[in-house]
Amino acid sequence: MSFALNEVEALAKRASRGAGYSWGLAEEAAKATRWLCARHLDGCAALGALLEANLAESLRDHMPVAIGKNWQGATLLCPLSTGATLSDFAVQVVRNSAVLEDVIQPTLILPFVAYAARQTATCLVVTCGGTEATTDGFFLNISKPFPKHAAKLTVRAHGTVSGQPPLASRASPAPEVWATLNRFAHRTYAPATEQSRMLGAGAGLSDND
């Protein structure tokens, strides 16, 4: 079963919020997921796995606290909070490169690197576990899928981007991945009350005939 990218983005946003991320980061997660799916990568699976790791419950521990040549956190780096920080420090990253240590679901870093590339009009190369991805902010060349965890992920200014297949307009996540996102999204729904059930029952209690 396939879904329009608008549907993917909407569910990703609600699922990220349901997992405990702020609405701001949830929106970033949704855009990142859509960006990946449009470039034929499984953004839904990457996001679902990240949400199941429950990093949002102690997000401060998973944010970069040392930002220089090497970016480190107290423990695993969250690609959403780390990616947002990378976008903010785009000029610094282009000038000096950056080594991110201990990143979970590093595929989700790619849309943020792309944004940094657009901001600085620079091609950026991401190296992760023997895999290399290059983006100018719009196109993406990647040798093979990223691993689920990166002990070290390097971002540097280098390279060029060749053409890529047309952007996808739909995504086909695995049913269990879509179910995972829906499970987190349901946490954002308000529980039904007697009044809401009555208001949503159709004709209601009044009879105007």
Structure description:
This protein has 209 residues and is of the alpha+beta class. Helix content is 41%, strand content 17%. A six-stranded mixed sheet has the order 2-3-7-4-5-6. The protein has a two-stranded antiparallel sheet with strand order 1-8. A hairpin with a 4-residue loop joins strand 5 and strand 6 (140-142). The longest helix has 16 residues, at 23-38. It is globular, with a radius of gyration of 19 Å. Mean pLDDT is 89; it is low at 199-209.
Tag the structure with descriptive keywords.
209 residues; alpha+beta; six-stranded mixed beta sheet; two-stranded antiparallel ribbon; disordered C terminus
In short:
With 209 residues, the chain is of the alpha+beta class. The protein has helices spanning 5-18, 23-38, 43-52, 79-88, 90-96, 110-120, 175-185, 194-199; strands at residues 3-4, 70-71, 98-104, 124-128, 131-135, 140-142, 149-157, 170-171. Strands 2-3-7-4-5-6 form a six-stranded mixed beta sheet. The chain has a two-stranded antiparallel ribbon with strand order 1-8.
Q: How would you spell out the order of helices and strands?
A: EHHHEHHEHEEEEEHH
Cα gyration radius (Å): 19 Å
Report how far the terminal alpha carbons are from each other.
45 Å
Global outline? globular
* Fraction in beta strands: 15-25%
Total number of strands: 8
Tell me the structural class: alpha+beta
| Unreliable stretches covering 5 or more consecutive residues | 199-209
Sheet with the most strands: spatial strand order:
2-3-7-4-5-6
Total number of helical segments?
8
Determine the fraction of residues in helical runs and give it as a percent range: 40-55%
pLDDT averaged over residues: 89
Described by strand count, sense and barrel closure, the largest sheet is: 6 strands, mixed
